[in-house]
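Amino acid chain
________________
===
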Amino acid sequence: MTEQTNIKHLLIIVHSRSGTNQALGQAVVEGAREADVEIRLKAPEEADENDLFWMDGVIFVSPEHFGLIAGLLKDFFERTFYPTENQLQGRAMAIVIGTGLDGAGALSSIRRICTGYRFKEVQEPLIIKAPVRDEDLAACRALGTAMGLGLEAGIF
């Protein structure tokens, strides 16, 4: 194995209560492992601003609760916004929403908040309605692979 001095870092934040989004997040991780990037998988309550400073790209995997962003992911944003304000501009971001609804409210919330961080959305979001099918997991793996390879190649 050759020594990598400029290895990129991918943060994957997954919130899941029922296990659905955990399965989607695991598929994202599996896909990202196709690239030569360092991956950090965390629940939103475990992640902090140090994880955001560490990462070159982030993927948020979240349910939609009551038509909005999940509370623990919102808490993560509330805890990390001001400590990182104006310091993360242009870092790559993607979104996966596993939901029983249409996912539009959670997607809008996450996008609006991430605009404040000045992240650059580099993948089309995935909105996956339960029950999760094999093709949904394949789409999550593909998103993880694309994000990992894009970071590795310096595309984003």
